[in-house]
């Protein structure tokens, strides 16, 4: 979706210290403030806060959606983590999502940065290329899944045909457990347009004087990239990394579409190689009658995301050098 | 000032309008019966449903409202409808769900005297059982058979040995062509597998005595047979879109729904369907749908009347055909048999020896999460058939809490 | 000298652009092919006859998906939902963001932080409880059930708030001295100055809701009310193995979004760039 701004803009805040009560807006100003946020607040309470609390409650119950939830305390959490008879693929799905994240996020960032650097280097046609490279982002997951399943077809697919020109033997992309995640990650990188645009903005923000100084120091293009461009892009990369990891850990729609219609079964592809965490969660919620366990899975994911995000804030450099 | 008022008024009007304009779908009133079913596969099928509906409405002076949903999304939607209290009066239910829904009283038992049990195929009727009682009427049934390309396979194999032999011959003659599309270790393959196991004289479980049986010799032999087919049937070929229909694979295991697909899309393909090859006795699996009545319905009498109507001698053949399956009513099946296309005959024949799935509430999970991975493990060579199945059977025992 | 150095860059860009675009071209080509022509040993980017190799496109697939699969109805539904949802959402988000950015009412910042926290909960968790709320409001299985539960977005409020905070306060004060009220300032000053970010929110919302599959999947039952992604998913499962129908359906879903992108491309792409971090 939209790209939020993590760091506050250090801009003029008219309600800063000493201006708290600006003359003119009167006492009813508070009321206007509350009035303006009321619709958003109703939405927040009804569709975020209440559902989150309800889901937390269900995570402590055994619930099949049909009869009343049955309180089981922490059993869902302990069973998910430790009972591999009841939940044989829990850790497998954790592994699938982690590997997907580790492959897809860097691949997307590299693709996006590469495209941004190339576009930034030209003037004529840069709008056109920017537009073409952005196209995949706007495509519905349902359509992306259908298109790529067809592209990856082992006999009739375009991918194998193109690889054939370079002497690479045809691969069975979506049916070979070793290739499923790379194939999915490639689709993610294909859709890197938003990251590319954000990188482009970052590149435009690098002061010309810095580059010129580097040139005067005798730095070549590679050195300039390493010593000036990359460090200056750090805040952008950090933002894309954090949001990218959060999104990758929750990948669902694409795998659902790719593996449901292709194999007439939704169990996550060959040897569960495409059984991502959220796909697994979805199956428990709607196929295996275990909504309580599914809710517990989502809170485990929430805690995990918070930890990963906090670790990134702590250990990844985010300020421009 | 006017702007301010207008802005606020717009927001309030918007919210008021939004909350006022909604309308949920409730279970129908006394005169309207809501019936959930799958989306029609073809326009012709849709017309048959319409005709049946009109016939029932006229005879009983009531209204029937169909809600038609894509098969893949049906269960997800049904779950959220039940959870939110908007279940229909009656609906179609996938066979393995009946025992689950019966157990938590989401659906009601068939009232005594609704049907004559002997009028139905036993395999199909049995899929409605939960703790010895019927909880639905079988609407249609289906099974899988062996599709074969007549050009590559002049006479279809009857036994496993013949199957392996023909598969090898085909692949040896042309290495670009696979012998057979070997089923996969996924939910779908795990659904077909018991039909082969029964063909070796085996069973998946013994429900009454709480025994898991799919680690025994017949099941192990079956899985080994699939593994043995792979060298002459490489996945690289068979995973292509429509590998059989495009002539890339000489045989495949599939259901009647593919007969129409192939005829319509690949008119040049000369093919036929034979019953599944077996080891010791002819057998097959069974799939299909049952009709159930939800416990929240205020119209149960009318709902059962409608289910009787679509399963009776006169209508079941039409309904089942529109569904893409075969009648469950024996008299209706005789009509179907008289007019059937040659490619369809094998399925109907095989349904006489079809075995119902274990009536275990967790069966879908066992199927997806335990059996499917075990099949895949053996098919990919990561374990022997015996190892994979022993492990799977042990897991199933612990999951179900069975001792043997 | 300069031109020589640019040549490899253009070549690389052309290759990358091809990777981006060829899947769409292949989708279109497949959608115009006769069924059996789809399965050729050498994939063709043009609708050619499989035997003669002659130019032989067809519109049958489009006729089929429009007539029989309900894609036509779904298209109208999607347009309708987006036409109501997007403006309403934009208004609600912008008003709230304005209050969060500019009006110092008590408890404001704590409330904002609470809302940001809510944003971290995975949406999939909230799915079923949201269905309950939707049901309680009487919106289950209706198009209002697609609109109301999506009527605001914390992410968008966050983005808009950041932007509003960066606008210079002097203009606002000048307007105040001229006697303008909060709403007048909002409409006359804030909105005109915020066009880039408002268009970003509009477009990203449109892309998201036009393409959303999961929420409509659980909230809608009646196929008459389906939106495009749902109808497409239904088509893809019902017609599995008929790539030409599925690709025609995909084209119907994708083309409107591409059209919107083409029309607004300058604004969107600059807007997104703007909303990103400054390096």
UniProtKB/TrEMBL annotation, chain A:
Protein origin, superkingdom: Bacteria
Topology of the protein relative to the lipid bilayer: Multi-pass membrane protein
Domain ABC transmembrane type-1 residues, every copy: 94-312
GO CC terms in record: plasma membrane
Primary subcellular site in the record, as a coarse category: membrane
A Pfam entry, by short name: BPD_transp_1
Family the entry assigns: Belongs to the binding-protein-dependent transport system permease family.
Protein name as it appears in the record: Sugar ABC transporter permease
Automatic annotation (TrEMBL), chain B:
Signal sequence residues: 1-22
Keyword Transport recorded: yes
A GO CC annotation given for this chain: ATP-binding cassette (ABC) transporter complex, substrate-binding subunit-containing
Biological processes per GO annotation: maltodextrin transmembrane transport; maltose transport
GO molecular function: maltose binding
Signal keyword on record: yes
Keyword list, A-Z: Signal, Transport
InterPro entries, per database record: SBP
A Pfam family the protein falls into: SBP_bac_8
Coiled-coil ranges from the UniProt annotation: none
The family this protein is said to belong to: Belongs to the bacterial solute-binding protein 1 family.
Protein name: ABC transporter substrate-binding protein
Species: Planotetraspora thailandica
From TrEMBL, chain C:
Native species: Planotetraspora thailandica
Membrane topology: Multi-pass membrane protein
SUPFAM superfamilies: MetI-like (SSF161098)
CDD domains reported in the protein's UniProt record: TM_PBP2 (cd06261)
Keyword Transmembrane listed: yes
Subcellular location, principal: membrane
Similarity comment text for this entry: Belongs to the binding-protein-dependent transport system permease family.
GO BP of this protein: transmembrane transport
Protein name: Sugar ABC transporter permease
One of the Pfam families matching this protein, by short name: BPD_transp_1
Keywords: Cell membrane, Membrane, Transmembrane, Transmembrane helix, Transport
Annotated transmembrane regions: 7-29, 78-100, 112-132, 144-164, 185-210, 243-264
Lineage summary: Bacteria, Bacillati, Actinomycetota, Actinomycetes, Streptosporangiales
Sequence ranges assigned to domain ABC transmembrane type-1 in this UniProt record: 75-264
PANTHER family: ABC TRANSPORTER PERMEASE PROTEIN MG189-RELATED (PTHR43744:SF12), ABC TRANSPORTER PERMEASE PROTEIN MG189-RELATED-RELATED (PTHR43744)
Domain of life: Bacteria
Family annotation (InterPro entries): MetI-like (IPR000515), MetI-like_sf (IPR035906)
Cellular compartments annotated: Cell membrane
CC per GO annotation: plasma membrane
């Amino acid at each position: 979706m939209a790209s939020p701004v993590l760091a506050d803009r250090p801009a003029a805040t008219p309600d800063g210290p000493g201006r708290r009560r600006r003359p003119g807006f009167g006492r009813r100003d508070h009321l206007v403030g509350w009035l303006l946020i009321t619709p958003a607040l109703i939405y927040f309470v009804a569709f975020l806060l209440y559902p989150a609390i309800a889901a937390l409650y269900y995570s402590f119950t055994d619930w099949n959606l049909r009869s009343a939830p049955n309180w089981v305390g922490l059993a869902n959490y302990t069973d998910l983590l430790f009972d591999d008879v009841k939940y044989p693929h829990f850790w497998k799905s954790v592994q699938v999502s982690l590997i997907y994240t580790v492959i897809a996020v860097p691949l997307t960032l590299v693709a996006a940065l590469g495209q941004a650097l190339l576009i930034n280097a030209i003037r004529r046609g840069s709008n056109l290329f920017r537009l073409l490279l952005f196209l995949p982002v706007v495509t519905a997951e349902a359509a992306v899944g259908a298109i790529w399943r067809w592209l990856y077809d082992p006999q009739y697919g375009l991918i194998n045909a193109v690889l054939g020109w370079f002497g690479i033997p045809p691969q069975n992309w979506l049916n070979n457990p070793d290739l499923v995640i790379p194939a999915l990650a490639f689709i993610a990188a294909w859709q890197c347009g938003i990251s590319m645009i954000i990188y482009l903005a970052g590149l435009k923000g690098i002061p010309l004087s810095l580059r010129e100084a580097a040139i005067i120091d005798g730095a070549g293009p590679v050195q300039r990239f390493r010593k000036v461009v990359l460090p200056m892009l750090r805040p952008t990369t950090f933002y894309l990394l954090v949001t990218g990891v959060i999104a990758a850990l929750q990948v669902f729609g694409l795998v659902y579409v790719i593996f449901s219609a292709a194999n007439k079964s939704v169990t996550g592809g060959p040897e569960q190689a495409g059984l991502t965490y959220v796909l697994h969660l979805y199956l428990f919620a709607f196929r295996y009658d275990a909504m309580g366990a599914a809710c517990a899975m989502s809170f485990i994911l929430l805690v995990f995301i918070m930890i990963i995000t906090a670790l990134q804030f702590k250990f990844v450099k985010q300020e421009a050098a | 000032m006017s702007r301010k008022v207008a802005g606020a008024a717009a927001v309030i009007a918007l919210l008021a309008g939004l909350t006022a304009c909604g309308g949920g779908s409730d279970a129908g009133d006394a005169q309207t019966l809501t019936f959930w079913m799958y989306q029609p596969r073809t326009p012709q099928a849709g017309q048959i449903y319409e005709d049946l509906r009109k016939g029932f409405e006229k005879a009983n002076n009531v209204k029937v409202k169909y809600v038609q949903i894509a098969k893949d999304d049906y269960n997800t939607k049904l779950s959220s409808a039940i959870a939110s209290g908007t279940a229909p009066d009656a609906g179609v239910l996938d066979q393995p769900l009946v025992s689950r829904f019966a157990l938590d009283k989401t659906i009601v038992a068939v009232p005594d005297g609704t049907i004559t049990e002997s009028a139905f195929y036993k395999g199909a009727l049995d899929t409605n059982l939960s703790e010895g009682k019927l909880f639905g009427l079988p609407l249609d049934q289906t099974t899988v058979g062996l599709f074969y390309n007549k050009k590559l396979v002049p006479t279809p194999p009857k036994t496993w040995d013949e199957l392996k032999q023909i598969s090898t011959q085909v692949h040896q003659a042309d290495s670009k062509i696979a012998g057979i599309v070997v089923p996969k270790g996924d939910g779908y393959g795990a659904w077909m597998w018991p039909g082969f196991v029964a063909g070796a004289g085996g069973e998946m479980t013994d429900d009454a005595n709480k025994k898991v049986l799919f680690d025994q010799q017949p099941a192990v032999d079956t899985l080994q047979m699939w593994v043995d087919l792979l060298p002459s049937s490489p996945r690289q070929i068979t995973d292509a879109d429509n590998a059989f229909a495009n002539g890339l694979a000489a045989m495949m295991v599939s259901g009647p729904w593919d007969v129409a697909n192939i005829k319509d899309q690949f008119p040049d393909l000369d093919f036929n369907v034979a019953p599944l090859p077996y080891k010791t006795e002819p057998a097959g699996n069974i799939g299909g749908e049952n009709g159930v009545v939800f416990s929240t319905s205020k119209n149960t009498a009318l709902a059962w009347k409608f289910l009787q109507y679509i399963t009776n001698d006169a209508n079941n053949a039409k309904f089942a055909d529109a569904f893409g399956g075969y009648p469950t009513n024996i008299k209706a099946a005789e009509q179907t048999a008289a007019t059937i296309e040659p490619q369809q005959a094998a399925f109907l024949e095989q349904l006489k020896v079809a075995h119902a799935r274990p009536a275990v509430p967790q069966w879908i999970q066992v199927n997806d999460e335990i059996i499917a991975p075990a099949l895949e493990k053996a098919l990919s060579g990561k374990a022997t058939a015996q190892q994979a199945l022993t492990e799977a059977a042990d897991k199933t025992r612990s999951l179900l809490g069975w001792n043997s | 000298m300069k031109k020589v150095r640019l040549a490899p860059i253009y070549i690389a860009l052309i290759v990358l652009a091809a990777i981006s675009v060829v899947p769409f071209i292949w989708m279109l080509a497949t959608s115009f092919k006769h069924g059996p022509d789809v399965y050729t040993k050498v994939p063709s980017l043009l609708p050619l006859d499989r035997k003669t190799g002659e130019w032989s496109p067809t519109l049958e697939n489009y006729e089929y998906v429009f007539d029989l699969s309900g894609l036509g109805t779904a298209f109208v539904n999607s347009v309708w939902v987006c036409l109501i949802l997007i403006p309403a959402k934009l208004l609600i988000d912008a008003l709230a963001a304005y209050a969060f950015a500019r009006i110092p009412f008590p408890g404001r910042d704590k409330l904002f932080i609470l809302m940001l926290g809510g944003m971290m909960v995975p949406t999939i968790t909230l799915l079923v409880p949201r269905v309950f709320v939707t049901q309680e409001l009487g919106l289950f299985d209706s198009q209002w059930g697609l609109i109301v539960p999506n009527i605001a977005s914390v992410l968008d409020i966050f983005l808009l708030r950041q932007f509003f905070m960066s606008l210079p306060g002097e203009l606002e004060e000048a307007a105040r001295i001229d006697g303008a009220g909060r709403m007048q300032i909002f409409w006359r000053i804030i909105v005109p100055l915020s066009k880039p970010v408002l268009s970003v929110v509009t477009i990203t919302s449109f892309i998201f809701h036009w393409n959303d599959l999961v929420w409509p999947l659980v909230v809608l039952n009646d196929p008459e009310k389906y939106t495009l992604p749902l109808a497409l998913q239904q088509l893809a499962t019902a017609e599995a193995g008929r790539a030409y129908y599925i690709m025609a359906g995909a084209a119907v879903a994708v083309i409107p979004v591409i059209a919107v992108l083409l029309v607004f491309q300058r604004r969107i792409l600059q807007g997104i760039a703007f909303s990103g971090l400054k390096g």
